[in-house]
Amino acid sequence: MDTVAAWVLLPAVLVAVSFGLGAVLRRVSRLPVPSGLLVPIGMALGVVLALSGYSIGLRGLLTPVLIAVLALAGIVLAVRRDEIKRPGLGALLWLAVYGLYMGPVVLTGGWTWPGYNFVNDTAVQLVVADWLPSNGRALPSERGISTTTDVLTTYLSGGYPQGSHALLAALHGLVPVGLAELYHPFVASLAATCALALSVLIAPVVGRRWAAVGGFAAVANNLFYQYALQGNMKEIATAATLATAAALAGWILSHLRRTPRARRGRALVASAALLAVPVSAAVDVLSVAGAPYAALIVVLWLGMAAAQRLIPDLRSLGLALAAGIAVLAVATAATLPRLITWGQTTSTTFATPQMAEDLGHLARPLELRQTAGVWLIGDYRFPPVGTSALLTTLGVVLVGGLCLVAVLALARRRDARVALFVVPVVVVMVLVTPRVSPYADGKTLMLMAPGVTLLGAVGAAALARWRPGVGIVLAAALVGGLLLSDAMAYHAVKLAPVDRIESLRDLDRHLGEDRGLALFNEPEEFAKVFLDDTRHNASTEAITPSQVQLRIPQGFGNLYFDLDEQTLEYVTQFPTVVLRRSPAASRPPAPYELSYRNRHYEVWRRRSGPEVLEHLPLQGIYQAALEPSCQEVVALARRAREGEVLVAAPAPTLVMLDTIAARRSAGWNPHPYRPRMVLTATPGEATARVSVRKPGVYRGWIAGSFGRPITAYVDDRPIGSARGVNNVGQWHALETVPLTAGRHELRIKRPSGGLAPGDGYAGELGPLVLERQEDAQLERVAPAQARSRLCGREWDWIERVRPGDRRDPISRRAA
């Protein structure tokens, strides 16, 4: 039910609310704004109202209710004035774009979001959107409470723009479904609204049908599409507000030409005030980075109005500027105080010499030609190869040629309205690119990309006037190239693992009442979203109360470190430790006991005593245990004082198919930097004969991250399949299987590709491990018995401890 509500109700509510707010603007301005622009300008007003409402203290449902009441009033006004028309091409365009963007999610059969572990900015967007309704723009009371509150403090105090977050939060109040479920439908709705606005912009030039083609082509641009699939909500919202401002400015020019000169002054003032709404929304959404785009649209609009002699006199111009500035000041009042702060933050993040080469998540600086929208490879960060490279070049040449035709045709018609959108995105890209990092440059190229393919569609329409067949064929080639590129992105998309997300939500319900700070020992950036009611410390986050302290210091961003790789002092400062379930993870130190377990996670809580004085870690790559050096064991025992004992964590009983050492298909090559991992470039399999020493029930585990199901077999019997994007160093659980002692054959198999979203994500594949299901208890060893009992065996770890009181199990065994 939540899935249907997210996919259907969210876009329906957004369109209805936006239409109603647009109708209010049409009524207040007394301008005959076309119906096709009501949803875009209403969405822009929704951004302004949502951010303003939360900023002035309209908490909880007050802001959503205010927006809904205004929207309802607008709809009632439109009905009474008989201004609601039957849905036409604009509605079909909106639905087509929404379907294109929702395809990777809908075709999974359930809610999720794309871009997981690609660019996890989505986590920050969700945290901020969740914070606004209850707290507005107030900062958390103090640092160190949890990773979630520390992230909020850092972003909010830095002037982080929140316009799109506020609109999402307000819609969440009207559609009571989880924010994560609503996130991608919201992004898809923004893209559809952007396409609608751009179609209105070019309709007077190319006609309504070609305008629909142009609007679709603009947002089907592969670079723009892929940024949406990685969760860039702010940037998609920025494009939508800029497209709305450009389309409204273009319509205003036409309206002023039709308005008698005697009434043109009033129309100009009303138009300036109305145009300030989407301009303000662009600033609210992207802060200081959105201002240059919006300002250029306004400057171009004024320049065109002056060139066409649509400004009746200086007094009218002055009043228009005053009206526009007044609306802008009111609509951005919640953002203006933070513009300087965010400008300073972004200048030190993206424009300093130290950051000049920062790639962020990119593998290389993006190429200018990628803005043509044809890029025949699933991951836009890499160049196409082979035949795909040749076809990409042909596609880029086609788009470039169509853009040239469009420029010549528009110059001949002396119609510059398309420039209202195209020129600002190109100018900002040209001016900004040399001054910022490749990561920031990628975003300027992404915002420019829809303008390129929009212009290409205008060129195809111009050719169709001359030779209809030629124009239609070239338009089909343009759209076909865009859709083929998008299909490749769909095939390679990385989708969020919803089953594990639900386990995080379950953890939050279980841990929410704990007072102490819990160590969350997994590089999971969405922990700060789904553990928001839990005092947790995501140890490898850049912003967190206590960053991981390693025995061997090294960089830790987005990496996994077993507890044995962390210092004892660091681990034991936390009363609770949360571990991802795994056959290779070390047990927490002796004072901790397992208190809760769900499908993916374990919760360990510290009891009173014993006191760990020294910890000998015994950890290998994908191995929870190793045989210790007897010399180290004896030395540890000699350091024990009276009353102290040694405690050892037994090694789990494991049977492993090592993917590197096994017989494997030719297309499965060793990972360049992840040990015991292979890259599965082709379908295939790996097999190995193994010896089972202890009979019993074993659970299967597969390490890695992959978009296609990997099936495991024991003696040709399937024991389950695993599929999904995973975090570094983590495992997928399979079913259990009874095993007898003796020789067995293990096999893992990757099938041929299919049409499912994400099926082309090859990822990385690690070992198959069978773990015997047994309840292993800590072993207490007297120092004098250390050599005989601890040497020559594998252990998870060995500790020197001082037992606690009589309630401590170790104390009772020592008595």
UniProtKB/TrEMBL annotation:
Keyword Transmembrane among record annotations: yes
Instruction: Give TM segment ranges.
Output: 6-25, 37-55, 61-79, 91-113, 182-203, 210-230, 236-253, 265-283, 289-307, 319-340, 389-411, 418-438, 444-464, 471-493
Q: What keywords are assigned to this protein?
A: Membrane, Transmembrane, Transmembrane helix
Is Transmembrane helix tagged as a keyword? yes
Q: What is this protein called?
A: YfhO family protein
